[in-house]
Amino acid sequence: MPRKAVLSVAQQAALIASPSAEHDLRLHYTLSENDLAIIRSKRGPHNRLGFAIQLCYLRFPGQAMTLEAEPSAELLAHVAQQIQVTPDAWTEYAARDETRREHALELQSVFGYRPFTIAEYRRLRGWLTELALQTNKALALAEQLIESLRSQRVIVPAVTMIDRLCAEALARGVTNQILDMHDRIVGRMFNEAKRKHEQSFAESRGDQRKGAVVRSSRSSVDRRTTKRARSLRSNRSRGGLGPLTQSVDEAKRLAEPESFDHLHLLTESYGQVRRYAPALLETFDFGAAPAIAPLLAAIDTLRAMNRRNARKVPDDAPTGFLRPRWKPYVLTETTITRIFQASPSRNAKSSVCAPRHQILPVPLAGAPPGGISVPISGPGA
Asked: Would you list the domain boundaries of the chain?
């Protein structure tokens, strides 16, 4: 399917149009003494005029003149007057394709122009993506892009390439905004769960001194409890071990380190993520190295479940991407808990279930219908 242009036909034409007004001709096409000295070195009025016209095209609109291009009568008259030749000398120059090619290469060398390469494309894509976070107007991005290319003496590529670059930058900008929002939401989930856990832990341990003593002697609690239990077996009928067992359980809980996992509290925020997660997964197409295949398969499983409005996770759903810390929450003896199933995120801090797998927001232009492509990098350290 052809990619939809983000610039209208009229906008594309305006971006690379040569001016015709006298003021604009003087602004863009007034030749310096150095320019005139180089132009006069060419033999014959047709070569001098043709060389000068190609130089004007490189400066504005910034493109190399194609063999099919015809300069306007206003431009020919303006330049011909400066180099003291007649405008009709262009007719002879236009018929010499080989000479035009030679002059084009010479102009790039003498005046320091360089071609638009794939390296330039990638560099400018990142720069435009930052601009796309400030505006969603393709024309504004295209104007900034062309101005930047002119100032750096990079030859402006075909307008279709400009359109493609702006489209990709806009898509990347939207992708960044969406995934940044998702990261913030998931980050808040983790922070809130950790805060609640720490608060609950602090409130439950009561006396700080008691908690410190109990934590330092956790192993001895079990030994003393066992010994006391044996001594009280004969007295079960007079009250049993209920109060003692409850006390021991509390002591063990207080003895847990303060970093004791808080992941179980994430279930409280599941409803918030559930409201937008299906749309997020449906919008983006994720790609990755082979090592991340199980995570991609898990995302596909969630997509399929969302489309069917299914609640139960299939028994054969992929779980190879799970880290040991998550397994107790995701896997039970009989089922897979959906609440803790894969939720992709761009950074290691907020990735659910696979916290070391990163998603990079690099949408590809011309992505197939159904989503924007987002590559996933390999596992981190």
From this structure: 9-111, 180-192+265-379, 205-261
